[in-house]
Amino acid sequence: MSLQRQPLSIDSVTIEDGFWQRRREVNREQTIEYQYQQLEAAGTLDNFRRASAGEEGDHNGMWFQDSDAYKWIEAASYVLADRDDPELEERVDEAIELIAAAQEDDGYLNTYFALEEPEKRWTNLNMLHELYCAGHLIEGAVAHYRATGKETLLQVAIDFADHIDEIFGEEIDGVPGHQEIELALMKLAEVTDEDRYRDLAQYFVDRRGHTDRFVEEFENIEEIAGYDPDEDGIATDARDVFFEDGEYDGQYAQAHAPLRDQETIEGHAVRAVYYYAGATDVAAATGDDELLDHLDRLWQNMTQKRMYVTGGIGSQHFGERFSEDYDLPNDTSYAETCAAIGSIFWSQRMFEETGEAKYIDLIERQLYNAMLVGVSLDGQQFFYDNVLETDGNKSREGWFECACCPPNVARLLASLERYLYTVDEDGLSINQYVGGTATPTIGETDVTVTQTTEMPWEGTVEVDVDAAEPSPFAVRLRVPEWCTDATVEVNGEPIDVDADAGYVTIERKWDNDRITAEFEQSVEVLEAHPAVEDDFGRVALQRGPLVYCLEEIDNDRPLYQYTVAPDDAFDATLREDLLEGVVTLEGEATAPSMDGWDGKLYRPTAETDDEPVTISAVPYYAWNNRGPGAMRVWLNGA
Amino acid sequence: MSLQRQPLSIDSVTIEDGFWQRRREVNREQTIEYQYQQLEAAGTLDNFRRASAGEEGDHNGMWFQDSDAYKWIEAASYVLADRDDPELEERVDEAIELIAAAQEDDGYLNTYFALEEPEKRWTNLNMLHELYCAGHLIEGAVAHYRATGKETLLQVAIDFADHIDEIFGEEIDGVPGHQEIELALMKLAEVTDEDRYRDLAQYFVDRRGHTDRFVEEFENIEEIAGYDPDEDGIATDARDVFFEDGEYDGQYAQAHAPLRDQETIEGHAVRAVYYYAGATDVAAATGDDELLDHLDRLWQNMTQKRMYVTGGIGSQHFGERFSEDYDLPNDTSYAETCAAIGSIFWSQRMFEETGEAKYIDLIERQLYNAMLVGVSLDGQQFFYDNVLETDGNKSREGWFECACCPPNVARLLASLERYLYTVDEDGLSINQYVGGTATPTIGETDVTVTQTTEMPWEGTVEVDVDAAEPSPFAVRLRVPEWCTDATVEVNGEPIDVDADAGYVTIERKWDNDRITAEFEQSVEVLEAHPAVEDDFGRVALQRGPLVYCLEEIDNDRPLYQYTVAPDDAFDATLREDLLEGVVTLEGEATAPSMDGWDGKLYRPTAETDDEPVTISAVPYYAWNNRGPGAMRVWLNGA
Q1: B1-9+262-419: which CATH architecture?
Q2: pTM for the full model?
Q3: Average pLDDT by consecutive 10-residue portion of chain A (638 residues)?
Q4: Do A326 and A389 meet the contact criterion of CB atoms below 8 Å apart?
Q5: Binary contact (B529, A563; C-beta < 8 A)
Q6: Considering CB atoms only, which of B558, B591, B597 is closest to A533?
Q7: Does the ipTM exceed 0.90?
Q8: E strands, A332-459, where?
Q9: CATH topology of domain A420-519
């Protein structure tokens, strides 16, 4: 791999942090446990048992249900990399045994096809997600191998990858209907040091938009797969999303054009960001700067025209997809949790190659908002799609028939260590401000870095840098995009900070030194680009990395009746008792006086006075943890 | 009839008016002609031909298609009452001949049943509209008889009414699925002086909400009618609207409770207002003041909580119905043209009994806005449902499968004479300001009243009162609700005006006198009750009786980007060249500066300046006469 900046491994970072530590405990103790129970309850593991026993029919759940097991193994493996947990390790080993037993002699592994249509492997790439499941198998296997050194699942993944490598590009000229295997193969290439997996990833990245395979499948699915798509539930359920006015429209799966000809980010949001994450890996590995620039243009289209203030992406419900520029409805926002997570995967890779702070800024926004909102504080209720406004009919759910999001949150939270630091040849970048200890090796020097911070509630960060022996290197601190004023000191001596530069670079001979940074957290009253009709005349509150919202339970009036002026002052108040401890924003706003309306529905606006009222906002990630109720991110602006 | 105030007959009023005369010419020359062509094109007349020939099957159009013919005859009859038109008269006579020939020996008349299921008469009152069609037959017959003195159609109506009178209350304890016959029977009672039609109307009014017939039909339709409602398209199409959570919910047809127990106006809007119009007739005829008070409370619920600023009613698309209090979406507003017209029928009756100006004020609002928007300036394109805001995907249509609205507009415009004046024992009320001449008899005195006005463009009205011999009586002028300042003079002598009293009453001995009234028309910036979420923070422009809107074609920016402050000044400018001559409102507004947004999607609101811009608004009724485009009634308020 030629990535310029390397993240630290999970076992070289320990998170001890007032905010994230609790979320990770809940993730470990509740979500990952709960997720395992769902694997049994939904028959996901049973699919492997029955497939290995040679049974037929009655596959449980979605045709990509195998991936739920793989993603659980991946999340559990990150936990095992972080700490000893013999019980969890045994449970993972048992699951791996079931999976390995279900693998066929030629390396192929998919319980839907094994049980339901063994003769129809690779006949419906568009819909049936064999390569998607293979990708998650590989990611789970790599995580498990890195965490435990055990090779059973890795060998299963290798055997399947080798089988795929034999078939694709040779027998079949096609790419996955749902991207995922691209970035997985890059991980496999890294851990095995085998170039052919990288080449296969590159084939999948480059071939999309060139091959006619999807069109052929739509036109001749009866011939290719032997079934009638209009009769077959699986094929028809999702089929409509590929068509525009009755014509095949590859945009849904980013297959409407070769990647290098795509000028805007289109289609199914999770597919898009998984794809571009894999493509970034390929661009990095092959030194393809042109592709990297092109990916940055797509990233800019996403962040400058097609993203919610929370970092949520994919605004359109139908097709779970990107819509047009500036089309960002709030009460029907889709903003799938998985899409924000996939965007984090992509941005992290873009940063590792370019070092540009904007990518890390977006990760921070999505970690604290679009991703974290996906799971309840108790770790057992989940949002799949995320609205920014509701009258109260939207709540997290216990599980989903298509259960992609909860395991994605779990594997991200369990691997948060990998998003905090990167090491390059010159030194260390501190990307996310999360308390704890890291032990990078910089050049030849072993260094211990200890972060102490109350982020996101306060903007102060202390970093102790303890080098095994005094050594010259650079330490880079990201100046967050939300920060209006930043001061940085080393051992009490101020450092020049250019807040717009993205990173403050401190080059010196490090020994046993303390960096103290103060990133000012004022309450920002934000507005959206005037082309965003749904936000027009509205404002959103942000403090530090957190986007805020009003919840019905904290406010007397219907939420739409509050108006916030740019100069309204807000008090940031730490409320230890509320929502496991949050800083609320309490402030003045106005609402219309209700005087004189009796018996009237319309009247001259001059007759209405506004009256001062108080509003109380909570962090968006924490909403809907106190029962159902109305919620609103975008408030009326004065 | 015991109505306190009597409208003038069509032939005693001549409309010569800068505004309405042209609309009525178009109605006569284009709409009524076009509507007749549709009767042939859609096979409506052919249904009568084939039924009278004893044919079977292949009924054309909707199961209530007969009513299209009856409503055309009614509109044409109003034209014939106003002027000689031998060609039109002959065409009407021919249609009447077809209808009369299709009547069965026992008086029953309905071509859907005659052709499709002759043995199933009266088996599906809920859905199949036999009584609704009978009502329109009666209305058409009364209008034709009054206009021409010819009795052919009146006799058909009498025979059918007698047949209905024999069956209902005796053989069948039931009421119409779609109200209409109630008010029609009251007209028949008046023209024939037969109380039994009034009694039958009263039965239909009072029995609704008591009889179990609708429930029985839903539960036993197979037994009653011999068909399976889940298989039969006609029965299932509209069936869902009767159910709430799977249970029968009579609200759709106002059958959820007896009228006197209904506290809010519910269900299908056209059904509701037709019903309450008929009930008002019954209350008036029976001197039932309690019922009249109850109807007024329903009217208040409608106007104070469930009505668009245009006077449109029935906001909910599904079920074409009233929704909850204050639920008035703008881009999905239903506001069916027929419902506004039915509301005019109801309000006119409420006024005739009570003399309260509020009813006439609403009629004025609906005539100039909610009704008139239903037809294009060329008389050949129609709105069935009326949005108050669109991004441009909404336009009038040439015709509808369910073609209730265009004929309703036609019959209202053709009978506008009946809405201008009422005579009571004390004198004359001038209700609507429309130029022309009326020749009422007040007491024993023949009077000629001549109105001269440029309404709705200017607020001046001159009324010449010319009594055949000098006589004492009252002339009442309505002071419109929109008028902020009113002056009235008689022969140059000022009269005291209490603008809140509704009417200015001038009692004197009239001879040959001139009343000059000045009703100030300022541009009102209106807002809606704060409980109307969809209008919150928004304002609407009104001048005189006209509600205004912005159309894309007249304004540079996306319409949602304009903000209007309460003190923004507007110039009212007569534009003879535009939309057959309209007063436009030209004024200052603000829109956000687009500076500094490059590459940004969100930023602190303090960074954005507004810039002054000009907007140009046109009357709402005139929108969408220059091709498709965005339109908006409710603008952002500052």
Answers
A1: Alpha/alpha barrel (1.50)
A2: 0.92
A3: 79 96 97 95 96 93 94 98 96 98 97 93 91 98 98 98 95 95 98 97 97 84 63 59 81 95 97 98 96 98 98 95 97 96 98 96 98 97 97 92 90 98 95 98 96 97 97 97 94 88 94 97 96 97 98 98 90 96 97 94 91 97 98 96
A4: no
A5: no
A6: B558
A7: yes
A8: 389-390, 421-423, 427-430, 436-438, 441-442, 445-453
A9: Immunoglobulin-like (2.60.40)
